[in-house]
Amino acid sequence: MYLTTIDMSRNHLNGSVPIEIGSLINLISLDLSNNRFTGVITEEHFANLTSLKEIDLSSNNLNILLNSDWRPPSTLESAGFASCQMGPLFPPWLQRLKTNGLDISSNALKGKFPDWFWSAFSHANYLNISNNQISGSLPTHMDGMAFKELYLGSNRLTGPIPTFPTNITKLDISNNTFSETIPSNLEASQLEVLSMHSNQIGGYIPESICKLQQLAYLDLSNNILEGEIPQCFDIFNIEFLILGNNSLSGKIPTFLQNNTDMKFLDLAWNKFSGRLPTWIGKLVNLRFLILGHNKFSDNIPVGITKLGYLQYLDLSGNSFSGAIPWHLSNLTFMTTLQNTKGQHLIYHNQLKYFVGIDLSCNSLTGEIPKDLTSLDALVNFNLSSNQLSGQIPNMIGAMQSLESLDLSRNNLSGEIPSSLSSLTSLSYLNLSYNSLSGRIPSGHQLDTLNTENPSIMYIGNNGLCGPPVHKNCPGNDPSTSSDLERSKEEFDPLTFYFGLVLGFLMGLWMVFCALLFKKTWRVAYFRLFDKVYDQVYVFVAVKWASFGKNTDAE
């Protein structure tokens, strides 16, 4: 029986990789990824692995140190060295791997691609070189290369975007410094994922993007694109459309209403205008609707309340008017508690754990709908800088997942609900610049907010009183309050009687000492005593004689 497969991935194994592994001549697949191995990988580890087809040493603290003239004993189908150390320059032995799949991401590689690189791997199906410090440009024509998945994100690549490989299904060139425009002739008919965010790509989105009928994920955010989105009536598969932070304009394209599988729509920080279409409620699988900081106007359509899977709604920084739609309690995903406290939320992958509503910086009027308090999974709630009136809902304390609450710069009135003090997850609160009045509720969580200047979250509400603002509530004079507190102290009988006896003895002892050492006081004392004695004796004798006469008469 021969050992052909070793899979020890995703454990907590540590130490060095034993050299003896190189003697397993029948080994076909070796996977030690996602462990804590350290040390150096040398030629001895591969000495007799003549049958090896797949190797994955990714996500360890290994140094791949092979001689520049080293030749692998077999032809590898896939090799994974992600998060290992093999830089800063591309090691020459890479060109002799002849592998169909290579992952050298997060390897601290620097400099430009070697001359041999693209010819050595042009036949590969999978190539991941992301998260390094590689500079320079890409080959002008890549349409003849065999790549199906190509990941070049988070490097320092520059220059124009080349033509896409014909068979490509997933392409990521994000977080670089690519410039100029998107190629006008996009022929990658099998492309499903295209990520080009965070570059310096300008111009218009070409009409040829409508040919990418398999496209499900498109991220062109954080560039300098302009113009309108092409009306791609044939693209019905798109689920993630992320175009935020550009200079795009026009209205939300109507073809999107046919994409009922859409999950993520981000058009924020652009120049889109007009009304938010009523058909937005047809996108029943939508999870993220991010339209903040555009020029949208008119009312927020009631159809939004039909988006039961919605977990993040951002309409901030527009010109929406009218009332906040009622029945937002229909956003049922926001009533499912999520554990997000303290998590670092990264825009493109961990945002799935975030639940929030941001309607700030609009012209919304009316009251805060009371049914909003049923959204007990809401983490961020921002209604600031509107024209909302009425009171803060009394049941706001039911929103137990709230970490951030901003109702500042509105026309809210009445008292702050005492239930606010029960929000144990709250880490940010701003109620400033309203018309709130009455006593500010206290509580352990509220007392820990903004400890440097806690009153700032209540500033601009002249009717509020009590800590932390410097205004006492009516009937709350400090001296009266302290006297009242002292009067409420518990009575202790033992202490009272002990003090009474001690006082009596001290007084008697002081009188005795005075009579003993002061002659004049002694004489005066006994004279007073004799005088009192005589008066008492006479009084008693007279009364007794009178009593005797009355008895004889009877």
UniProtKB/TrEMBL annotation:
Record-linked Pfam families: LRR_1, LRR_8
Compartments, record wording: Cell membrane
PROSITE patterns in the record: LRR
Membrane protein topology class: Single-pass type I membrane protein
Spans through the membrane: 496-517
Gene3D superfamilies in the cross-refs: Ribonuclease Inhibitor
UniProt GO cellular component terms: plasma membrane
Domain of life the protein comes from: Eukaryota
Key words, A-Z: Cell membrane, Glycoprotein, Leucine-rich repeat, Membrane, Repeat, Signal, Transmembrane, Transmembrane helix
SMART domains per the UniProt record, alphabetical: LRR_TYP
Predominant subcellular localization, coarse grouping: membrane
Family the UniProt entry places it in: Belongs to the RLP family.
Name of the protein described by the UniProt record: Uncharacterized protein
Organism: Triticum turgidum subsp. durum
